[in-house]
Each structure stands twice: as structure tokens, then as C-alpha cells.
Design a protein that fits this description.
It contains ten helices and eleven strands. By secondary structure, it is of the alpha/beta class. It binds guanine. Guanine (GUN) binds next to strand 4. Guanine binds at residues 96-99, 121, 141, 170.
């Protein structure tokens, strides 16, 4: 039987409605609007699309958007000065520096300079540490989106074997951390899994993937996960967004894997829409804490 298609767009719209209500309540209580500052350095086309989508999402959800577009030859000192200004600005609840930064700018130096209480990407070491200890201040947006898809689709991870393909700081590592947490410490019931992380140096990856009840692909290689790597009845979550000559595609060979899996996310329309709403949620959370 073909897999159920997990509609990330519909789930994101549902969460968006919940956020809109919370933003309205926040404004009624404080007379203030949450605000997200986004910093884009250079002209990377994919980054420009992401940042524009973030601006639009802010507009839909009643969050003020402060856009800072800087030339590609911006220096680290210039960027640090802007981050310091945004850290000090009470109208800015959350700060996002779009990655990748141009060659020559030390990414870690810039991300570590963001005030952890405004770090809505959840990249600062303080916030990564809190997630790993199961007492998060913010949840990283894409892994949180995956947890919401599982949770809201009735897919429990408890006691299941979850295999994460990819060990990036943005997705793979925090994803594994969140799946292994005890109930609800990371924002949803999709937890308590037994987790294996595969990566580019893993031997016999297909055999490991075939033992997964929940398979999460975040490796950045088009159609990497094929049907022979999937256990019949597994839930498959595709985090990949790859631009190919044939257009956008995920890390999963959707057409073959959907015949084996019990549930699967499409690309586009799967995890992508969740990442942006979880960023908006983090911005609202930041504003709520700052108003306390
Ligand atoms: N570039 C690709 N994904 C992300 C993300 O989640 N946050 C930021 N800041 N940049 C990115």
C-alpha cells in the first residue's frame, strides 16, 4: 500500500493560526509587537528566497520584520557592530543571521555574538547546551518542525528506532538530541526514541537505515534514500531541499520510497513550511520572555 503523504503545508498553517492568536494576546497584554531582525550578507539566490519568505511570514503573523541587507564585502567588524546594535534594540525580539556567510567571515564569531536570549535560530552554544540537557530556551527550527510533523500526524517515536542521516549542527545533531529526550522536554510527544546517527563515513548505511521505524534524511544529496534502504511500514521524513536541473528535490527518492513507507513527507510541501513557522514561534517566545 502506498504511503500516507504528510502535508507539511497544512500542519504549518494550523500552527500559524495558533501563533497569530498568541501574537494578538501578547499585543493586547503588552501593547508591543514581537520583532524579528534578519541579516543577509551578499547575494546568494537561495538565501534571498529564504529571507523573503521569512519577511512574508512575519507579515502574516503580526510580527515586525527588520531587514538588513549588507554587501558581500562586509567585514566581520561591520557585521559584529550590527549584531551589537540589534542586541541592544528593545524592538528586536529575535535576530537571525542568514547562512552561509560569504567566505572570509568567521561564522562562529558572528553567531556567538548574538545575545542568547534573542538567538531564535538556536545556534548559540548556550542554547545548544540547554537543548542537549532537555531544558530548552529555544528549539532549533527545522528539527522542531520535524517533531511537530510526527506529533501532529499521530506518529509516536517512543521506543522506536529513529535513524537520522546527517550530522549537521543545524539539523542532524539537534534532531538526534530531541528525538532521544524524555517526554515533552523538547516541545512535543515525539520523543523517547532510540536514535542512530548516520553520516558520510558510516559503513553499510543501507543496512542501518533498513532497521529504522522513523527515517530522517538530512544529508543534502538529491534522492539519496532509495526504496531498498527503507523498512516496509517506516515513516520517512525528508529534510533535504536540493536544486537540480530537474527542479527542487529532497534527499529521498520519493516515487520509489512512497511504495514501501507507511508515511512520507514530500519536497516541497513537507518540512520546509514548518521551519519558518517554528522560527516565528521562537520570535514570539523571545518577545514573551523579554516582556516579563
Ligand atoms: N541557512 C540555511 N538554513 C538556515 C537556518 O535555519 N538559519 C539560518 N540563519 N540560515 C540558514
Amino acid at each position: 500500500m502506498a504511503a500516507a503523504i504528510l502535508d507539511g503545508k497544512a500542519i504549518a498553517q494550523q500552527i500559524e493560526l495558533e501563533i497569530k492568536e498568541r501574537v494578538a494576546a501578547f499585543q493586547a497584554k503588552t501593547g508591543r509587537q514581537p520583532g524579528l531582525a534578519a541579516v543577509l550578507v551578499g547575494e546568494d539566490p537561495a538565501s534571498q528566497v529564504y529571507v523573503r519568505n521569512k519577511e512574508r511570514a512575519c507579515g502574516r503573523m503580526g510580527i515586525a520584520s527588520f531587514m538588513h541587507r549588507l554587501p558581500a564585502d562586509t567585514t566581520a567588524e561591520g557585521l559584529l557592530a550590527l549584531v551589537a546594535q540589534l542586541n541592544a534594540d528593545p524592538a528586536v525580539s529575535g535576530i537571525l543571521v542568514q547562512l552561509p556567510l560569504p567566505n572570509g567571515i568567521d561564522q562562529t564569531l558572528i553567531l556567538d555574538a548574538i545575545d542568547p536570549s534573542k538567538d531564535v535560530d538556536c545556534f548559540h552554544p548556550h542554547n545548544v547546551g540547554l537543548v542537549s540537557q532537555g531544558r530548552p530556551r529555544f528549539l532549533p527550527c527545522t528539527p522542531h518542525g520535524v517533531m511537530q510533523i510526527l506529533h501532529r500526524s499521530g506518529i509516536s517515536a517512543a521506543g522506536k528506532h529513529a535513524v537520522v542521516i546527517g550530522r549537521s549542527e543545524i539539523v542532524g545533531k539537534p534532531m538526534a538530541m530531541m528525538l532521544m529526550q524524555k517526554d515533552s522536554t523538547c516541545g512535543s510527544s515525539a520523543a523517547n526514541a532510540t536514535v542512530t546517527v548516520c553520516h558520510s563515513r558510516t559503513a553499510d548505511m543501507a543496512t542501518i537505515c533498513r532497521t529504522a521505524d522513523i527515517l530522517i534524511a538530512a544529508i543534502g544529496k538529491p534522492k539519496f534514500v532509495t526504496a531498498d534502504m527503507v523498512k516496509p511500514g517506516a515513516a520517512v521524513i525528508d529534510v533535504g531541499i536540493n536544486r537540480t536541473d530537474d527542479g527542487l528535490c529532497g534527499d529521498v527518492d520519493f516515487d520509489s520510497v512512497k511504495e514501501v513507507a507507511s508515511a512520507i513527507t514530500p519536497v516541497p510541501g513537507g518540512v520546509g513550511p514548518l521551519t519558518i513557522v517554528m522560527l516565528m514561534e521562537n520570535t514570539l517566545r523571545a518577545a514573551e520572555w523579554q516582556a516579563e
